Amino acid sequence: MKQVWYEWKKLISDKSVLLVVVLSMCIVIGYQWKNADSHSWQQNASYQEYYEAALTTVEEMDAETARQWLQEESAWQSFLLSAAYGDSDMAFELLQMNTPEVDWNKRLKENANEKADIQQTQQKYQAFTELLERVNYVISYEEFLESVKTQAQSMSRLSLFSDVDSFSQKNIQKTAEAYEKMSSVQPGLTYSDAADAWSDSALADVIVPGLLLFLGWAIFRKEKEAGLYQLLGSTKRGHLEMALAKTIVYFFFAVLLAILLYGSQIVLAILMYGMGDMTLALISIPSFRNCPYPISIQQYLILYLAVKVLAALFYASVIMAMLTRRWRFGIAASACVVVICLEYLAYKQINSVSKWNSLKYLNLAAVIDAKAWFCEYHNLNILSQPFSVVTGKLLLVLCGIILLPVVSCISFSKETRESGKLPRCFQLVANSMAKLCAQHRGLFWHEGYKLYKLGAMAVIIVLLLFFSTRLLPDIESHKGNTDQQVYQYYIEKLSGAYTQESRDYLQQELQLLNMEDEEAVQKRQQYEQGELSEDEYEKWQMYRQLLSDTRKKGFQRVMEQAAVIEKHLSLGEEAGFVDVDQLAYLFQDNKKQAIFAMIFAAVFLLGATALFGIERQAESSLLLQSTKLGKRPVAMCKLMQMVVLASVIIAILYVPYDSVLLKNIERIPMELSLNTVIGYEKFELSISIRHAFLIKTILQYFTVISVCIVVSLLAYRLNPASAAILCFLFFLMPCFLYWLGIDLSTWTWLGLFLPELIFANGGTARYYMEAVIVLLIDMKIVFYFWDAEIRTGR
Fold first, then answer.
1. If you placed Cys at 379, which of 75, 386, 599, 660 could pair as Cys (CB 3.0 to 4.6 Å)?
2. How many angstroms separate the CA atoms of 762 and 33, rounded?
3. Which of 35, 44, 193, 197 is nearest to 126 (CA)?
4. Rounded to an integer, what distance in angstroms lies between the CA atom of residue 73 and that of residue 128?
5. Does residue 106 carry a pLDDT above 60?
6. How far is Cα 223 from Cα 329, in angstroms, rounded to an integer?
7. What is the pLDDT of residues 555-567, one digit of tens each?
8. What is d(CA 180, CA 153) in angstroms, rounded to the nearest whole number?
9. pLDDT number for residue 1
10. pTM metric for this prediction
11. Residue 421 predicted with pLDDT over 60
């Protein structure tokens, strides 16, 4: 017990551990809070009042009556909204056409004196629509259970599945039996959206393995790197007892970490959305329709947290097994990252009906996806017997938690540990790498060795390569609401130079929307001459009015762009139509650029503190500076390694992203001048879109190098803790605040990273002055490194 207490105090006394855990919690909570913005209307007090009133009424009805009543009420509120924004007569005719079985004239007379408030009407409509979706789901759940039973019976009759001893037949029977007990469970209506909110834990599922790897280093490897293992191993409790104490502390922290991260998500979700009726069956929530377990939402909360804790322990066991091997930390950490990435790829890419589906469901990524334990039902083919995936996951986790720590403790103990050598199967490879490295014994390569191997930046770079694929842009040909789709429809026809043919087409569409085209004139004449009945003419007018209302806003955007083009053409400049929605991906995608800036700053700060802090931690900086190559060459080589690292990071982030972006942007004539496009008139330079994109890339790279030089100076002059704090405040904090909705980009380095400030808001002159100032500072810092002398340690 004393050894456990010693390991515990040693870990919690490390401020970096507490800082990383608190920072991770802030990121997870901020991410969930940011995602909740789209549901802010649900937190409105008026909406809750209308929803509760409608729910009270619905609870007194049977399901079919409730659905009919909610359909009528939502249709009526929709009519009131349409009447408030447009022609009330036309909206009423559409209401009668869509629901002819309701006497809407009577309803209209009863509510003739009612004054509708647009905001209240919208909230009522949303409340009725949300409740209608829940009632429809309750009705459809019985149909779903019946369909499972019917499908099982029909498939059993097919010759392909009729063999009684086949896996398919047994799987069909087991699936039907699993859902048969759900027939006695009834879904309810009074649940909240909290369960869906806390179940979305994708970011936390990425952070937890990283934190466990960091904690594993702090517990199992820190003393080894300090050369203390031989001393500790010679003490009375330096053998297996020390390994057991470290394992207990590591597992305790894994459990604590899971409870803190996932528990904070659960608490925040309940605070934002409310608890609702936690005693309702879990299948009341539509996303859990396939759940085969008759459990309540309250029970799911407890089981969800328990699964996350087990997953954290399982990850900790795997990471511990890697870190307690005789490998160096860089090799062990790389092995952990590679295993986790491969498991994730298998979980996402392997089809559920593949013969390799056991690799999909029995792995690390499947274990930590706690929601999938309860919202999916699958059986594995084990010796032609259907074996539940959930049972398989549970057995995998329990075996891993029991066996891997035992093996790790034995490997870690003094009796079985050799003197840090690699296994024999890797000895030949290690000797070959040593010979290769011996050919490059320059100081620059030595600093690279310290950065990428001793500082474990190679592991982070590999992880960044994997993560960058998740940031690739997703640009669809038609995306967004109806107005955006209409706008893109017109742009597809007009993209490019503005010609007389374009003018004629716009004039023709304008006549069509105003009902002044040839067809409209012909229909009007036919009606006046009696060739067209009044009902036929009104139906045709209604159709054309719907067409006009659908295209009106999208066409208005096109006409606004045409007016800007005409203005530039009158000045003798070349101009044409550009899809400004797609152009925004190039010059106004501030959210994605802020994410890139945050990732770059975080990864680069890790590299800088690792490279410049190695000698300080080993207290060998004075010794190195007193050598022949300890003044200017050491300082310049460190700076050059930082420049290379910054270039590698930015290439990993931007090269795949920009390549996919340029490949998928097909409605942007790159030869047109950027400042002739609507929304970019403030841009001072008359250059093409292609050249503007090139300038944006160059300016961002200049910003990256400037940050690299400034961070290198801070890391070189200050101790690692002070440098990390200052760099976090100056470079990472603005990114986090921007991500949470607090924009300080105008006054921080982040503004140099966001293209909208330059190309859309006309900040070229300001950026030029800032760039000159930053360049002078960079030159001063470079000369400082160049003239580096022996400095006394602090």
1. 386
2. 32
3. 44
4. 7
5. yes
6. 12
7. 888 888 888 888 8
8. 13
9. 65
10. 0.58
11. no
